[in-house]
Amino acid sequence: MCKLEVYNVRGQKAKTLSNNSLHGGKYTVVWDGKDDGNRNVATGVYFYRLTTPNNTLSSKMLLMK
Q1: What is the pTM for the complete model shown?
Q2: Contacts 24+ apart (CB under 8 A), 48-57
Q3: Over the stretch 10-29, which tens digit does the pLDDT of each residue have?
């Protein structure tokens, strides 16, 4: 199971982009700048967290509109 989530700078989850079983390989996910309620989020810094059965990775990103 692979989970990709986006969080704001306050640590609040903005969006779950993926929560699927995936085979090994490269994947591309595009975030449309909307939260789980389909509302536009503000321009600014966000963090993503990718959780797999073997590892958890996180990094920051900048959303510019």
Answers
A1: 0.90
A2: 48/4, 48/5, 48/6, 48/7, 48/17, 49/3, 49/4, 49/5, 49/7, 50/2, 50/3, 50/4, 51/2, 51/3, 51/4, 51/5, 52/1, 52/2, 53/1
A3: 999 999 999 999 888 899 99
